User: Fold this.
Amino acid sequence: MNRPSALSTPEKVSPLKRDPALLPALAAIWISLAVFVLYPLFRLFLTTFMVEGQFSFANLGAVVTNWYDRQAFLNSLWLAATVSVSGTVLGYIYAFAVTRIAMPSWLKWLLAAITTLPLISPPFTSSIALTLSLGPNGILLKFFGIENFSFYGFWGTWMSETLTYFPVSFLTLSAVLSAIDPTLEDAGLSLGASPGRVFRTVTFPLSTPGIANSVLLLFASSLADFATPLVLAGHSFPVLPTQAYLQITGLYDLRGGASLSFLLLLPAMAVYVLQRFWVGKKSYVTISGKTGSRSNFKSKGMLAEGIVLGVCFFVTAFILYLYSLILWGALVKVWGVDNSMTLENFRYVFTHGRKAIIDTLSIAAVATPLGGLMAVVVGYIAQRKRFFGNRAMEFFSMLNYALPGTVVGIAYVIAFNERPILLTGTMAILVAAYMFRYHAAGIRAVIASLHQIDPSIEEASASLGAGAARTFFRITVPLVIPAVLMGMRYLFIHCMTAISATIFLVSVRWSLLTTRILECMTELQFAQACAFSVVLILLVFCATAVLTGLTRFAAGRISGQGGRS
Assistant:
């Protein structure tokens, strides 16, 4: 009478008992998160708040009371706020043009392709081109005969960061605007509302999630960027990332650098929490699952479309000008002095810079597949398995991505510069920094992909006697391969172009292309910096083209198999 029924027994069995492979996978994930995410942050907090074995605010107080550091903190907030607003506005204009204005498909593709150029470039590429245009001996200053003009400071840094990061806003907002059903806007137009009123009352409110995410991403990106301010901001406009870098590398003050990075952490987390509360409490559902015809977008008016397209074409032409200037700068002997054409700069890259090319490709080749593997495992467990702590595991897996790169870099320096975990100067610390900071995109892509896959497919495999590991590798992994490859593409790009975290971790044993470019810029070797940038962009473009082709091939294979079934 007291024996449990056969139907009730499975519900009481722990997920770990039903799936023996889950326990070692969880152990491996949590150990890696503890070592490369939680432990560095713990050491960062100890370095900031512990003085002679006692909890103290002395280190933080010394930073806050220093007027120059305080000004750097305020400048960082002001720069991040302005870049997030201007970048989001520019990204929204581009997204609106691509998704709402009738134009040939090839023109839409061209706008999107040129806009994404900054995404596959080092984050300070635009600062190089702007320096060649508006800096000393700048081509635009000479052309217009302008003298005694200083481009350095806030305005130069703001312009460079806006051009660098607005493509992130464009990609985010174009996806949101594409998902809004045009029949909602048509309904407003049919009721007599003007296109401007429909935009203010329908289109713009429904795109608020994308706007909030764009502001968050651009704010965090600007906070983390130290290479652009290092080149363009100068002493007149200090910001926290450059101050933290100079505090550690110039003054060898690790505690001061840790305190500055902690200050950098606070606004980043505050913006993240604000975004979650702002968007999370509202509903923006426009796709209900009900069938019905989807109309085409109607004209927004000749004047409005003309203004939007005019802004897009002007910015696109300016981006092309900047990148052509980098190519031209790589082909001249000495910029501003001897503009005769030469290939000597590329010869310099492939001789003196050969080690940087090999090391960068080697680190990216190791970090990319490892990050892709971890992304698919974490994403699968977070989405498909239900156990205590799975949400915490997902959160900590993406924590390093939410933090500014400068904070991550300084935390790694503090944590792995001494025993028991001594990794300073090794390839492992660079691979770990890339993996645990940039594999978050792969995790989110895998989770989103699994949302679209019916769990009954995996259940059918299990009912036929296949184990959990066999089902995972033979059923689940092939279905999420496109998402994994997309995440690997994102990871590879950042392995090749990241600078904010790795500038603290690179050593004489390992040379990276981004650090070589920065060295050339600080030594005013503009031609060599341009040549390194061109080579890096071509390497990233070729690799991402291969990964994009593999992604489309895998997606085609999956859709083909789905059609046959």
Q: What stands out?
A: Residues 1-11, 280-295 have pLDDT under 50 and may be disordered. The first strand starts at residue 50 and ends at 51. The two ends are 46 Å apart (CA to CA). The first helix runs from residue 9 to 12.
